[in-house]
Amino acid sequence: MDYLVHHLTSYRYQRTVDRNYGRAHVEPRATPYQRVLSHEVTVEPAPAVLTAHTDVYGNSSTFLLVNGPHDALDVHSRARVTVLGREYPPERLAAPWESCTQDRWGNLMPAESVDFVLPSPRIRTIPAVREIAEQVFTPERPIGEALADLTHRIHTGFTYSSGATTVTSTLEEVLAARHGVCQDFSHVGVAVARCMGLAARYVSGYLRTASADPATLGTAPTGEMIGSAASHAWLSVLVPGCGWVDIDPTNNTFVDQRFVTTAWGRDYTDVPPLRGIVVGPAGNRSTLEVAVGVVPEARD
Questions:
Q1: CATH number of this structure's domain 2-82+273-296
Q2: What is the DSSP string of 148-196?
Q3: Helix, strand, or coil here: 224?
Q4: What is the pLDDT of residues 30-70, one digit of tens each?
Q5: Which InterPro entries match (predicted)?
Q6: Domain with CATH 2.60.40.2250 in the chain
Q7: Rounded to whole angstroms, how far apart are CA atoms 131 and 186?
Q8: Distance in angstroms (rounded) separating the CA atoms of residues 149 and 156
Q9: Is 32 strand, coil or helix?
């Protein structure tokens, strides 16, 4: 699947501000299943500084500085990407989940993956997490079956509600209320996997927002998925012989060609789509609007 991706983040300020510092994780990244054909970030008003940076996990981010009075900020990210199908060896998904834990990997575990076994700022093991983990990861259960069950349990056991949580909501609050958004459901999934000794990471990206034309793209039309109107989040679990296996509890599915990956980290705090500091009058307020389009592009 070839996609045209457009992500617009718009802030409107009640009173004029003097300066804006920001860092955006909006550039799709190259993966074994994704090729980035082009990408650009544009900012209005014109920034004094606009630079790219690559972090320890290989994510690209854009730093921006708007220096001067302004009452609005628009950050556009535009990209063209190709997303390939994912195929995992059936025999590896049929292996017991215990064979995927950190102690079984030993020295063969990729160095960067060690961070994804440990607790992180937003994810730690609590009794409610352990309870889900013990129901999903029963002795000798195939890892593929366990991941499918984890995806389904979160999807059916939690209610998607865009106003129920904020970016500061804790794992404890989400598990108690059983309401949240894709970010929250991904945190729950990562927490469950990590508490069983599996390497799991938080993934940020987008969902396809337009149905494919089967005459040009070779797939049947599909409806909108939950979370496709903005940036999306899911999780990956490291499986020997497969690499990272991505699951999306929000939509109760394994990740496929409908998903575009931008970044991954220990949890949301590593890869928010946009965060920063605004310098301006005390008590100033702002409104935020986000629009995302991930539109299939017909091939010649």
A1: 2.60.40.2250
A2: HHHHHHHHHHSEE-TTS--TT--HHHHHHH-EE-HHHHHHHHHHHHHHT
A3: coil
A4: 999 999 999 999 999 999 999 999 999 999 999 999 999 99
A5: Bac_transglu_N, Papain-like_cys_pep_sf, Transglutaminase-like
A6: 2-82+273-296
A7: 17
A8: 10
A9: coil
Sequence-distant (≥ 6) Cβ neighbours of residue 287 within 8 angstroms:
11, 12
CATH class of 86-270: alpha beta
> Could you identify the residue written with the tokens 């009452």?
71
The predicted-structure confidence for 127-164, as pLDDT tens digits, reads as follows 999 999 999 999 999 999 999 999 999 999 999 988 77
Three-class secondary structure of residue 36 per DSSP: strand
Cα 200 to Cα 113: distance, rounded to the nearest angstrom: 8
Residue 210's pLDDT is what? 59
Provide the H-helix boundaries in the chain: 90-93, 102-105, 127-136, 143-157, 171-177, 182-195, 214-217
Q: Which residue shows structure tokens 């899911």?
A: 234
Residues of the chain with CATH 3.10.620.30: 86-270
